[in-house]
Structures are given as structure tokens and as C-alpha cells.
Amino acid sequence: MKAQREKAKPVSRAALAKAADRRLVALSVSIQDDAALFDEDIRGSRAHVAMLAAQGIVPRAAARRIDAGLRRVRAEFAAGKIRFDEKLEDVHTHVERRLGELVGADAGYLHAGRSRNDQVALDERLFIVGACDRCDASLAGLQRALVAQARRHERTLLPGYTHLQRAQPVTLAHHLLAFVEMLWRDRQRLLEVRRRAAVSPLGAGALAGTTLPIDRWRTARALGFAEVTRNSLDAVSDRDGAIELSFAVALSAMHLSRLGEEVVLWSTREFGFLVLDDAFATGSSLMPQKKNPDAGELARGRASRALGDLVTLLSLPKNLPLSYNRDLQEDKRPLLEGPKALCLTLDALAGLVETARFQPERMREALGGGETLATDAAEYLVEKGVRFREAHEAVGAAAAFATRAGRPLSSLTPEEWRRFHPAFGKDVLRCFDPVRSLSRRELPGGPGPRRVRRELERWEAALGMRRKR
Ligand code: ARG
Q: Does residue 334 share a domain with residue 195?
């Protein structure tokens, strides 16, 4: 077998009179990237050869030997035992070559009615389906971590921010559920991507199908696909699925960068809203006192990579004539790495969120002296029949007065309030109770605690979380 391997010829150059120049070989090799597709590639080949046998295109005994050989090649790939040879270019040729070494000449039956062009299109579609499932599981994991913390902090108050300035009180539960919503949309998007990817291109051949009596539905079904592609040229040249997955990944990574940014901000001494568990913090090689939120920072950094991957994938097919062009080989690294990076980020953030200790006291302090309830005072006037613009101006003037006097807004007396508008009564002071403010915000989508409780229950059910009570 050793001798055979040394004699191994490169990818077929049947029509060419010379061996490839080593500089061309060095440029074309892709096994370092696409080896990651070995499992998808071998699943496709097993379905293909079973179909060839069922259609009487290859002898059943040969198909059985090929299938056993393919399973062995898969085990060798999984164990890292396949030696890469750059002359063999890609994963497809490596699999076929190793199969040849294992089962002999009969391996040559396998590639009937198929090209590497429809083969790689299939491998990518299988990969996309699997990647969507893996990302979905990790997204659900982070959702659960967020919901569990939200449940613990149903009554923890903090200022919600706009422009990173204290705006209005919300509960920590409501704040955390905002991320749960984003991640839910990410999951829905992946589901769509998955559905469109689950279509078999096998049978498109190099670009124009095959003259052999293959059964495309049979391979599709064997691979768990409910449909087959409807145009062979499109099937081998389309990379929409890769681009869509990359978009869904980039958008989700962008969401995680926002969560990461809040982890970074909130864990500063200045904010102090969050204390990271030591297992999810890093130290400094120089400064002994440091406790750093690297996972949050990497969530931001990984998002940049995800955006780059999307731009790479979008620009690869741009301006390409039909159908397959070798440019498309360059899709492997962004396609294969992107979802993996997303899952790593999701899993780390899930652990970080699960173990983080939020600081209700600090959050409460940040609510300050009633400034975040100025809108409530304006709405108080509206309820008394005042036009909102007029009310807004009156409370604005009161707030400016309090600032000049160096006093919190909540310290103004009813008499002082009346100076800014005659409709202010004694009960205006009630506006400055944040708990009361929240309890009056029970509208759909609002931060009212009862509303948020219902949302929590809905999420716990949707995410299959059993409540420990
Ligand atoms: N490694 C190639 C790719 O990923 C497989 C298809 C090669 N086809 C070809 N005609 N050279 O695109």
C-alpha cells in the first residue's frame, strides 16, 4: 500500500502533456481548509454509490466494498490519520485516492454521474444544514442563561440608557430579555437559511447533468433533503446558501458584540453593575490587580471577523460567468470558520452570563435622584389634560432649575413644581417612585413587572426550561 501511495498520481490531468508546475500546485491546494468537510463529503459519496447500485449503474458488490471503504476513510479522517498531499488538491480527491488504496480498482466506480462541482455544492449544503443546527443549539443555550438571570432579577431596577445616558428605569429582567429577543430572531433566520439549503444539487454534474440513468430523488432522500435543484448550471455555480449563512452568522455576531460591550462596560469599576466569575475573567501578565472581561471583548472582535467573512463570500461570485469557476473554492475558510467562531462565542457568553453576579445596589444608585422619571412628570400633566409639548417644556424648566440649584429632581416640593405649571398638584411627588413608574408600564412590550413575568414564563416554556421554585 505504501508503494501505491508513493506512485499516487495528482488530480486527473488526462488531457495535459505535463505535470503541474509546483507554483500552480501551491496556489491551488485547498485541503488545509476543506478537509473539515470530510464527513459531509463521505455522506454524499455513500448516498451516491448506493443510488448507482440501485440503478444498476455499478455492481452491488462493488458498491458494498466502496461503502465499507468510505466508512473507513471517514474514521481515518476523524482520527487525523489522512496524510495531506498538495498534489491531490482538495478533500474530494483525498477521499477518492484513499478509497482507491483501500478497495482497489473498484473505487473507480464511485465518481460515475458526478463531478467535483456538484459534489462540493452538496458538501456545502450539508455543512450549512449542520452549521444551522449547531448555531441554533448554542443560541438557545445563551438564551437560557439570559432567561435564568432575568428570572433572578425580576425586581432589580436600573436605568435604561439611550445615548449611553441614563434615560428611564427598567428592570434587569427586561434588559436581559432584550437580548433573548435578538437571539430568537437569529434562530428564525438560521431556520430559513437551513430550509433553503436543504436541496440536493447532486446530479447537476459538472454543469449539464449526466447521460447515466441516475435517480436524483433517491440521493436527495437518503441525505434528508426533500427537494432537488432545478437547474444544473445554477446548482454548481450558486453560493447563496453560504452567503445567507454568513449573513445570519454576522448579524448574530453583531448582536453578541453588543452584549459583549455591555459586559465590558458593566464590569468596570465605574459602572460596577456586574462582577464576573473568576472562571470567566482573565488576568494581566503585568498588572497583578487586573480582572479583565476578555470574553466580552472577543465577542466584539469576532463580530468584525464575521463581517469580513460575509464581504468575502458576497464578493466571490460577483461578476462570475456561469457556471462553476475556481474562484468559488475560496469560499471555504469564511464559510467553515464563521459558524464555528459564532458557536464558541455563544458558548463562552452563556457561561459568563450564567455565572455573573449582577449588583442590584449599584444599579439602584445609578437611578439617581429622579431625573430618569422626568417623563413620568410630563405624562402626569398630560393626564391632567395638558398638551404634551407644554408639559415637556414645564418639566424641562423644572429639571434645569434643579440642576442649577444642585438638587435632585425628586427633591422639588409641590409648591416649586407649581411654579413651572399650575396643573401640578401634591401628588406629582408620586411620579418619583420608580417601582410605581414601572408598575404603570404594563403595556405590551413594556417593562411592567407583570408583563415581564409573562414574558419570562413564555420564554421558559419556549426554551424548555423547568422552573425551580
Ligand atoms: N475544490 C474545489 C472547490 O472547492 C472543488 C471543485 C473543483 N472543480 C473543478 N472543476 N476544479 O471549488
A: yes
